[in-house]
Structures are given as C-alpha cells and as structure tokens.
Q: What sequence folds into this?
C-alpha cells in the first residue's frame, strides 16, 4: 500500500464548477502538506502549503488538512479552462526534505 | 528572481551509457533535491544535497548518484543506463535550513533511453 493515495482521475468539469481534489495518507509523522499543479511538459508549481491541520485560502484555492482522518483536500472555486492540469498532493515529516507525492489527479475544465 | 534551472531539457541516450544532469537552484537556496517522474511510479525522491553533503537518499540503486558544489549547483549522474531509466528528472531547491523548507521545482530534464 502506498503512503499517499490519490485518485488519478481524469476529472472533467464545466467552467465555473467547484472542484474537489483529495488525498489520504497513512504516515502519522507527516506534518507539512502541499499541493502542486503540473502542466503538460512542465515542472510542478507550488499552489498551496499547509502546516499541520486546518484550512488555508488563497484566491480561488482552499486547502484543508484533517490529520485525525489523515485526509487532505484542495478546492478550486469558479474553475477556469486554464486550471486544466495535473494536481499533485505532497507531504513530508518535519526535519526532512523528502516529499512523498500522490499519483496526481488529471483535471480538465471545459468551456 | 530566477527560478530553478535545469539543463539540458531533453536527452536521448542508449543503454549502457551514462548521463549527467545539471541543476541551478534559486539564488540563496542551499538545498537541492532530485526526483524521478514516470507514468507508472509517479514522482519519487532520489536524494537531497545540502551544503555539499547528501542529507537524504531514496530507494534507488547506486547507479544514481549526485553531488553539490560550493555555489549550491548540483549535478545528478546515472551510469549504465537502462530502458527503465527513461523519465522526467526534476530538481527542486529550498532554503534548506529549517523544517519548513518549501521546495520549488525546475522544468525538468526529459531523458529517453533507447
């Protein structure tokens, strides 16, 4: 079983929809949680960064971490065609720089 | 501020050859991590260098090695290439000092082994 599970999709939504992306994990030592966006043939771009449990909002993006359930989410409001990409969750324990990634969810937002 | 720069962007090699990839981190960043991305295995951690020392290592064979120079630039070497080494190799840099260490990725080097 993988340390981080993420549904690879693909997920197809109409423009303007609210998108929910999720990851579950098994290692209770994870303290730092990230969401990266990766366009085709590009490197991952950091979207959201959260330490421990709680919510964080940045524009149309909201990240949630529930450490008791070992579950993290990324919500995208008013989705745009330019949001079409692969979204990767990543996490790590404190004191280490080794990120453990989910498989990535491929999102397509159609006009 | 310039981002993480990886060179070359594309490489084609044949089995048995060796290859060296280069990564220039964001100015002021002292940690460089390397990852391999494949369709089957996703993104997997190779190793991390901080202040010219390997600080963490993933589960890859000894054919994969790296080093870091005094200016924080890093190189990754793969010897005796196998077909399965075809992948996107990503470099990420971070400040490196504390626990937080947000990692920023380069565009990657796409390696094809024929």
A:
């Amino acid at each position: 079983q993988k340390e981080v599970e993420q549904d690879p999709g693909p997920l197809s939504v109409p423009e303007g929809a609210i998108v929910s992306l999720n990851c579950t994990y098994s290692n209770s030592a994870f303290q730092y949680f990230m969401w990266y966006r990766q366009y085709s043939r590009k490197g991952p771009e950091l979207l959201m960064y959260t330490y421990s449990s709680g919510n964080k909002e940045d524009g149309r993006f909201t990240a949630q971490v529930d450490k008791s359930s070992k579950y993290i989410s990324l919500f995208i409001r008013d989705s745009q065609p330019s949001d079409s990409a692969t979204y990767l969750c990543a996490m790590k324990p404190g004191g280490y720089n080794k990120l453990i990634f989910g498989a990535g969810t491929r999102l397509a937002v159609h006009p | 501020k310039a981002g993480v720069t990886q060179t070359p962007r594309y490489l084609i090699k044949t089995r048995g050859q060796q290859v060296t990839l280069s990564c220039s981190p964001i100015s002021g960043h002292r940690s460089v991590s390397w990852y391999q991305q494949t369709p089957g295995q996703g993104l997997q951690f190779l190793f991390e260098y901080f202040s010219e020392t390997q600080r963490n290592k993933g589960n890859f064979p000894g054919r994969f090695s790296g080093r870091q120079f005094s200016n924080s630039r890093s190189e990754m070497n793969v010897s005796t290439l196998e077909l399965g080494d075809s992948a996107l190799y990503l470099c990420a840099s971070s400040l490196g000092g504390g626990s937080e260490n947000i990692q920023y990725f380069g565009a990657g080097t796409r390696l094809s082994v024929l």
The two ends of chain A are 37 Å apart (CA to CA). Chain A has no helices and eleven strands. The CA atoms of residues 18 and 77 of chain A lie 5 Å apart.
